[in-house]
TrEMBL record:
Signal sequence segment: none
Ranges where the Response regulatory domain occurs: 322-437
DNA-binding region in chain numbering: 1-98
Low complexity: compositionally biased ranges: 302-313
Statement: the UniProt record of this protein carries the keyword Transcription: yes
Alphabetical list of SUPFAM superfamilies matching this protein: C-terminal effector domain of the bipartite response regulators (SSF46894), CheY-like (SSF52172), TPR-like (SSF48452)
UniProt-listed Pfam families: BTAD, Response_reg, Trans_reg_C
Family designation: Belongs to the AfsR/DnrI/RedD regulatory family.
Record's protein name: Transcriptional regulator
Keywords: DNA-binding, Phosphoprotein, Transcription, Transcription regulation
Gene Ontology biological-process entries: phosphorelay signal transduction system; regulation of DNA-templated transcription
């Protein structure tokens, strides 16, 4: 059997650990495209779009050659006229039939799901499970999560460079990786390893300044480690960055956590049987060792259980939003659908490749629609105006490659509630969807900067006249 590594440069190995030579770069790129949507048939047109910016005139013949080369490399013992088992021909193109367990991305996702099952916490209290889990199960799941995070060797599907076709799937996997780090930190807090939780989140703090769950976990870990000043400073810095950069206020969960920290009423943080690392015996076992270790004795967890109950945080969970996407690039659209389905509180109900399918699928029940502006000759701006005329309650969030001020201006005048560049990351997309669903307006930082520069240029020109 073949095992693929896509969480970094593409690698293929057999069960005995031997590496498979996948051939030239374009041939490897083809396998990366197929692996990105394994189990799904990709049309020739979609593959060509992901393979070349400017396809050669003989692209069909070239593509057949790459497929033949990959089949020989992956299935060297296959008879000349026997049907291929891994890269199969479909009615529209090709499909990779590899199971999820035979890819590092699939194993990573399975480990995250296992960890979530062992430690299920609400989004507004990510450090505290709704029901107390078994500490041994948490410890074992945490260990498996560490192994899964070690599978990452770099940017997923590296052979696809900065191709737009890979953006949705890369964003989905990167979002899952961040969630895995947060989940691992929450487990460390529950197992009494505050210092490990702080260290595990440090690398994310500088690149995820607007991520609420990360700020809350860091604050709780600092408090558990006895660093009250750092805990409060973390929440205040998050509030300031969010307001300065995006003009948004944090959710009520941040204010509630801040109040609990000021009153020193966080409540019980450590699972029974685990060992608190802050303010206790420095020689006590920590992390997984502490969780699995048997023994008794009154520790920080016992003392915390006798403290007055902490005030309940405001419930952050909202009804599921029905969202959709209109985009004529099939592989990008497939990746975005996967990303949207992976984000909590979202359900994809529209998957349209152009105006005709959008008109058929969009109903009054759709909350937010992501709209491309170039739709194979049709105008996303005009489609936005048309759909809003039929469904006035619909919120349209433009998602495009155009960052020119004129495009932003015309889109917003057509009724769009937001404007994102397609390079936006998962947390930006998620936040934008929820913001426009509430009736707010969002303009991508890249687009906003371009608009500001254009306005500044106009003002400078006017001052010179």
């Amino acid at each position: 059997m073949v095992n693929l590594g896509v969480l970094g440069p593409l690698v293929a190995q057999r069960d005995d650990g031997s590496t498979i030579d996948l051939g030239a770069r374009k041939q490897r790129r083809l396998l990366a495209v197929l692996a990105m949507h394994r189990g799904h048939s990709l049309s020739i047109g979609a593959i060509v779009e992901a393979m070349w910016d400017d396809p050669p005139a003989s692209h069909a013949v070239v593509l057949q050659g790459y497929v033949s080369g990959l089949r020989k490399a992956l299935e060297p013992s296959r008879a000349p006229r026997a049907e291929a088992r891994l890269i199969v021909t479909t009615s529209t193109g090709y499909m990779l039939t590899l199971d999820a367990a035979n890819t590092d991305a699939g194993r990573f996702e399975a480990a995250v799901e296992q960890a979530r099952a062992a430690f299920s916490a609400p989004s507004n209290r990510p450090w505290q499970p709704a029901t107390p889990p078994d500490r041994t199960e948490v410890a074992l799941a945490a260990s498996a999560l560490d192994d899964a995070l070690d599978l990452w060797r770099g940017e997923p599907y590296a052979e696809l460079d900065d191709s737009l076709a890979a953006h949705g799937e890369r964003s989905r996997l990167e979002e899952l990786r961040v969630q895995a780090h947060e989940l691992r930190a929450a487990m460390r807090i529950a197992l009494g390893d505050a210092h490990g939780a702080i260290a595990g989140l440090e690398s994310l703090a500088s690149v995820q300044q607007h991520r609420e769950s990360l700020a809350m976990l860091r604050a709780v870990a600092f408090a558990q480690a006895g660093r009250q000043v750092d805990a409060l400073a973390t929440l205040r810095a998050f509030r300031s960055d969010l307001l300065d950069d995006q003009g948004l206020d944090p959710s009520p969960a941040i204010a509630a956590l801040e109040e609990q920290l000021l009153q020193q009423r966080l409540g019980e943080l450590v699972l029974p049987g685990s060992h608190e690392t802050a303010g206790g015996n420095g020689d006590a076992p920590t992390g997984i060792a502490g969780a699995v270790a048997q023994g008794s004795g009154k520790g920080a967890a016992d003392e915390a259980s006798a403290a007055p109950p902490a005030p309940a945080l405001a419930q952050a969970d909202a009804p599921t939003l029905k969202v959709g996407i209109v985009d004529d690039h099939p592989i990008f659209r497939m990746g975005m659908v996967g990303l949207l389905e992976s984000l909590p509180g979202l359900s994809v109900v529209v998957d349209a490749d152009g105006p005709d399918t959008a008109r058929e699928q969009v109903t009054g029940e759709v909350d937010v629609l992501l709209m491309d502006l170039d739709l194979d000759g049709a105008s996303g701006i005009e489609l936005t105006r048309e759909l809003l005329g039929v469904h006035p309650g619909l919120k349209v969030l433009v998602m495009t490659m155009h960052d020119e001020p004129d495009w932003v201006d015309r889109s917003l005048h057509a009724g769009a509630h937001g404007y994102l560049i397609k390079s936006a990351q998962a947390d930006e997309i998620e936040r934008a969807i929820h913001t426009v669903a509430r009736g707010g307006f969002v303009v991508d930082r890249v687009a906003a900067r371009v608009v500001r520069e254009a306005l500044s240029g106009r003002q400078d020109d006017g001052s010179k006249r």
